Amino acid sequence: MREKFPKRYLIVVLTFFSTFICYVERMGFSIAYTVAADDAGLNQSTKGKILSTFYYGYACSQVLGGWAAQRLGGRSVLLLSFLVWSLTCAFLPLDPNRVMMLVLGRLLVGVAQGFIFPSIHSVLAQWVPPQERSRSVSLTTSGMYLGAAAGMLLIPNLVIFKGPQSVLLVEAVLGAGWSIVWLNYASDPPRFDLPRGNFPARFGKELSSKEVHKINSSIPWKRIVSSLPVWAIVVNNFTFHYALYVLMNWLPTYFEKGLRLSLQEMGIYKMLPYLNMFIFSNIGGVLADHLITNKVFSVTGTRKLLNTTGFIVASLALMALPIFRTPCGAVFCSSMALGFLALGRAGFAVNHLDIAPRYAGIVMGISNTAGPLAGIIGVELTGKLLEAAKTSNSEISSPESWRSVFLIPGVLCVFSSIGFLFFSTGERIFD
Fold it and tell me: 42: alpha, beta or left, given left = phi > 0 and alpha = psi -120 to 50?
């Protein structure tokens, strides 16, 4: 049984479900809060501020999460993170008029979830050998998109039948359930199973206590922070999350206010953009491993090819989105944008493990700090742009109101992909 389904596959599956549940939570809160805020008569700018609060907490804990995963172990840190945000959701009242309570609650959820991806990368760097990294990371991160798709499909109906508060309770149950499974089935890898790239010892050999101490104590902070390949990852991470978070938080508003469509009436079509991300993310991972394993391209060439292709196509789709005013056109453009962004993750998002397998959690923490910063800037800026457009045009259903919303991430995709072409590498630079 062990040979048919190795333990590392179970770890990858469990990390997939961790990202799935996290994005059900994020999408769920966005939809539930939007409904509650609209019922309370809040304006778009105020909604943007509350929706962006999560990302302040998320940004603050990324590097700390990488450090904690490096010192304490990704398995334990991941469990603690889930327990904290699940309990917060269970007791947080979703009342738009209790602004301070919502701000504190979303900050705490953001801080807790900021530990998740650095911990996951630390766990995967320990468990997954180099030839399986692209598809393993792609499968794990594709849980985000399937979770967003499931949230977009199911949460509106839950809000209608049980009310916005029920969404937080369901999310808390999902988080607690995953924590129980992780506690019972996850473990640290046996030393003889650790991948060669993770430690300075031969694969299948024991590490001495001196080597383990060296790994935990000598983190080359200065070299990491000043590395151009690291900054290439950071910039692309920022762009990816700017586009993702703007669409995740404001696409429901675009459908309902911009196109005057009902999310309930759209049925399964509203989840297609995120389902497309799930599909393209896994295509990118399998394709990358195929190109590398069969030596079609080098690791560096593969990362640059997939990153550039994904971001350039996504850029075109984002800039075309406000032009298509039909439901099919909007769903098609948003699906293409998010799908090819996910394909691009087989470039920059796996690159942490290429250049710094031993410090994957640390580099991921630094890189992923750019993600919530993009969320803070993008989500709040979008609210202000729409509020300004509403003042000028008296409504936000016109394409002019949304053009700058989608133009900004489109332009960012072009410039960040150029930067990745010039400065990234697939070679290990931190031993």
Answer: beta
DSSP symbol at 398: S
Q: Amino acid identity of 201?
A: A
Residues 6+ apart with CB under 8 A from 355: 227, 229, 230, 363, 425, 426, 427, 428, 429, 430
Cβ 234 vs Cβ 59: under 8 Å: no
The neighbour count for residue 219, using CB atoms within 10 Å, is: 17
Among the listed residues 171, 330, 324, 320, the one whose alpha carbon sits nearest the alpha carbon of residue 266: 330
CA–CA distance, 342 with 247 (Å, rounded to integer): 13
CA distance 279 to 290: 17
Closest alpha carbon to 124 in 184, 202, 69, 183: 69
Q: What is the mean pLDDT of the chain?
A: 85
Q: From CA 27, how far away is CA 18, in angstroms rounded?
A: 14
Write out the two tokens for 151.
């949230």
What is the token pair recorded at 219? 């983190």
Q: Percent of the chain beyond pLDDT 70?
A: 90
Dihedral class, residue 341 (left if φ above 0, else alpha if ψ from -120 to 50, else beta): alpha
Question: Per mean pLDDT, which range of 10-24, 172-186, 193-207 is the poorest?
Answer: 193-207
Residue 295, Cβ neighbours under 10 Å: how many?
7
Q: Report the range of poorest mean pLDDT among 38-47, 83-92, 164-173.
A: 38-47
Residue type, 283: I
pLDDT value, residue 206: 33
Q: How far apart, in whole angstroms, are the C-alpha atoms of residue 19 and residue 144? A: 5
Residue 13 amino acid letter: V
How is 252-313 classified by DSSP, letter by letter? Answer: HHIIIIIS---HHHHGGGGGHHHHHHHHHHHHHHHHHHHHHHTTSS-HHHHHHHHHHHHHHH
Q: What is the pTM for the complete model shown?
A: 0.76
- Cα-trace Rg, the chain: 21
CB-based contacts of 379: which residues, under 8 Å, 6+ apart?
A: 48, 51, 52, 55, 245, 246, 249, 250
Q: Which of 197 and 261 is assigned the larger pLDDT?
A: 261
Per-residue pLDDT averaged across 62-67, rounded? 86
Q: Over the stretch 357-389, which tens digit does the pLDDT of each residue have?
A: 888 778 878 888 888 788 889 988 888 888 887
Burial class from Cβ neighbours inside 10 Å (0-12, 13-18, 19+) for residue 268 reads exposed
